[in-house]
Amino acid sequence: QVRLVESGGGPVQTGGSLRLSCAASDSNFRFYIMAWYRQVPGKGRDVVARTGPQGVTYYADSVKGRFTISRDNDKNTLYLQMNSLKPEGTAMYYCAAANNRVVTNGVYHFDYWGQGTQVTVSS
Predicted confidence band at 105 (pLDDT cuts at 50, 70, 90)? Predict the structure, then answer.
């Protein structure tokens, strides 16, 4: 079982920046596909960004050019640098990890999830 703990969320004004962190308990972290998702009340979780073991990245169109996903394999930690934040970025942000690449109908399957960290962007 892999434990994921997010941190770094909080209130921020429109145009501001935050850096989220996700600490993983497993030293196999370097082999995992990692991702950030976000969810607002009443809606499903949407992928924000994803990175594979070789560092290949994917970003949702809504965050391209503003958010950067990165990982430090020595620290077993995933990051999400969020710049130029907008009110629609208000959500609970979750970290997710996958042992293997399992994709169904274009959707990646993740084995482990963190508890989330709240980001609130005020206008």
Answer: confident
